[in-house]
Design brief:
Number of strands: 15
Structural class: mainly beta
Largest sheet: 15 strands, antiparallel
Shape: globular
Oligomer: single chain
Distance between the termini: 13 Å
Radius of gyration: 20 Å
Strand content: 35-45%
Amino acid sequence: GTEALDSDLSIKFTLESGLSADTGSQADTTGRFFDRQAWVSLASASRGELRLGRQNTAIFTRGGNVDFGARTLGSIVNNFGVPARLDNDIAYISPVMNGLQAEFHYAPGESTVSGGSLAVYQYDVDYSVGPFKTNWAGLRAHPAANAAVKKIIGYDNLNVVYDYGDGKVYGAFVRSNNITSSSTNGNTAANLLGGTGTLLSTSMNADDANRYYNIWQVSADYRISPQLRVGGLYGKIIDTSHSGRNAKGGAIGGFYDMSKRTTFYALAETMSNDENAGFRPAGSAAVSPNFTAADVNGKKISGAQVGVVHKF
């Protein structure tokens, strides 16, 4: 919702609740109804916007710049695990000036141990000129003051998009240490910083925290007709510690616009995990089937997805 205060200033709010489409139950099993976003802001077209509350991360918001699928399944970048949203987030979003826009976030973590304990900082810079669009979004999550491992967990994402008229070409690079082997679902199936707001654990594993990954991905799409768009991607997850936790894979898909708001789509993907890797398919969130470590560790995973997107 939005309410204008004058010609330049307005109050905005967003409340979002996630539901499981197959059962109708709340997506958040802890019972939090507005589990996705819940924020209020003071926005000015000339001075920018100040937001307070539970918000999507700058990284998550730019998901449409990563590849042709825009957070459907098949993206190798999304399979790594993207920090999606944080509680108690204070954000400033600048106005667009000569194609340039900046965004900054601070989520204090609300720790009683000491100031700055468990705080999460975010930043993003967007720039558009002609057919090119690029953004660099990042995040830094601080451990608790009493944590045994004093390691900052980071996630940096650089995206470049070129619009050639009949479609787009995407390039994405990610560097992060936000993966843990301490998961019953696979060696690399969980994040150190929770994807939906869980902060860093005081029992964080030092080996995981000091292991960085580089993710490269290229993608392109082509509009066959005003309604039909097809695309593909290929990407690699590279374990810079050389401990056998690499993965690689790709996807192809098609999107058909039935109307301005309704799109039908279909995707096919495949991903191969190295011996000690256990990445699993994900889109905007991890898929629901009860994968175990035996299903993903060192395995090749292939799948297909069909769906409908309706934008209100």
